[in-house]
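Suppose you are handed a protein chain with no further information: no name, no annotation, nothing but its sequence. What can you learn? This example shows the usual starting point.
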Amino acid sequence: MPVELRDQRILLTGPTSQVGLPIARALAPHNEVHGVARFRDPATRAPLEAIGVECIALDLAEGSFAALSEQYDYVLNFAVVKSGDFAYDLCANAEGAGRLLAHCRDAKGFLHCSSAAVYAEDGPKPFREDAPLGDNHRMLFPTYSISKIAAETTVRFAAREFGVPTSIARFSVPYGENGGWPWFHLMMMKAGSPIAVSPDAPNLYNPIFEDDYIAHLPRLFEVATPETTTLNWGGSEAVAIEEWCAWLGELTGLEPQFETREGVLAPLPICTEKMDRLIGPTRVDWRSGIRRLVKARNPELLKPEYA
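A reasonable first move is to predict its three-dimensional structure. Written in structure tokens, the prediction is:
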């Protein structure tokens, strides 16, 4: 059944994040949006309240859900904790997701944002949704991959237990005018810092621009089922770090410096066949998206012909 995210009551966790804030900006003008985060810094409320989001302070690991309504049409769980403390992070990311779904069991749809970090390293071929799972991101964030795997399992159980139509979307590299991994590389290029890459070149990923992941949201609810629909979520075209940094160099005149070494993230391209079939391919070409990122965040760095 087609889903239109207009005139709905929506709960969004993680609304202050690089991904959550653009989603909040897209949804708030046409819906009643409640944003859940810890809000330890009161200043993080201001951009959300300015666009009409009702901010609710809540720690998903240990907080009471009493402040949350039980009546939401759609729930988008983009919250993530990466403290490095296994007990806390598993509680916040996995148990918290299950508690949230149980609390919102009357929702018409639940979207849980996972990550391609759930996959075990397995060479250069694109990872399909049935690929083996593993502790992919341990060298960067010790608790991240395991927490994401645990959260997926908890969400699947709760979706079946309470009959809530649910999708789990495994993000690759989200980016946009609000930042993302390519922007961090741009800042490293500006500082003259080397960018670490795996020797298993090319270092392929599937960057997805904010226009595309926002456009996918209604479709992710359309394909949701109580048995849970799990799919990869990224750009339909795989792009190497080396490629997007070279394009950043073309846009700005800055020269990327690469440092090839062991112990960094291995390439993590995803197969988007299921995504393209169920919710549609992405539309924003990665070169266009990265140019828009630089123009939004660092217009002073653009060459005149790209400004």
